[in-house]
UniProtKB/TrEMBL annotation:
Domain (SET) ranges: 51-184
Classification via InterPro entries: SET_dom, SET_dom_sf
Transmembrane segments: none
Stated name of the protein: SET domain-containing protein
Organism, as annotated: Rhizodiscina lignyota
Pfam families, per the entry: SET
Length: 198
């Protein structure tokens, strides 16, 4: 088994390769989260540090996440390239931690989220573009990860914005550039940053 961790991985967070399922998820919900629709995009499971990204501490005082970390491209990433999937603790609405800064909705209809506060991979370090760049250069998409042996896992995958969606960012993400998504207005509204109303 691959036990390597990415450089700069924090000691208080468990580095995981696949989702950790809460025992409170109902069997029929769990079944829906591991049953891939025929037409869905599938990505092969790849355990271990992702070669396309690098976690870096943010030392620039003008960066709004100064003194935290961010995720950067370790090679040029072409438009629409799959980068990494978001893993963490998969939980029900009732178990959601309203204080978490790492909780991503996986399936709104099923009321399921994935929280990477205590367990996660490099994707937990992706910052929001606001105050850093004019626009995001990456986005979350629904994916299914083929775990082998006929098993699949529904996850959120991070992709480089496609040429159609990204305008001037159609060249993809350059080596060394920070990977930035939009967390959505709701994330910042809940944290009282009303000024970032876009
Ligand atoms: C999912 S974490 C991203 C990784 C985080 N920077 C870290 O080092 O663990 C989300 C948190 O990162 C910070 N963050 C992300 N994007 C930001 C932005 N554009 N401006 C200010 N803080 C940001 C906020 O503290 C937010 O609650």
């Amino acid at each position: 088994m691959n036990t390597a961790k990415p450089s700069q991985w924090p000691e208080n967070v468990e580095y995981i390769f696949s989702i950790k399922y809460s025992k409170n998820v109902r069997p029929e919900t769990l079944q829906a989260l591991i049953t891939k629709p025929n037409t869905a995009t599938t990505v092969k499971h790849t355990p271990g540090p992702c070669p396309r990204v690098r976690i870096k501490s943010i030392t620039d005082p003008s960066h709004p996440a100064h003194d935290q970390h961010g995720l950067f491209a370790s090679q040029h990433l072409a438009p629409s390239t799959y980068i990494i999937s978001y893993v963490g603790y998969l939980h029900t609405k009732d178990e959601a931690d309203s204080e978490s800064n790492y909780d991503l909705s996986l399936d709104r209809e099923l009321g399921i989220g994935v929280d990477a506060t205590k367990h996660g991979n490099e994707a937990r370090f992706i910052n929001d573009y606001r105050g850093i760049s004019d626009s995001p250069n990456a986005e979350f998409r629904d994916i299914w990860v083929d775990m082998g042996g006929g098993k699949c896992e529904k996850r959120m995958g991070v992709y480089v914005l496609g040429a159609g969606r990204s305008g001037k960012k159609a060249k993809g993400i350059a080596k060394g550039e920070e990977i930035l998504v939009s967390y959505g207005k709701g994330f910042w509204k809940e944290r009282n940053k009303e000024a970032w109303d876009e």
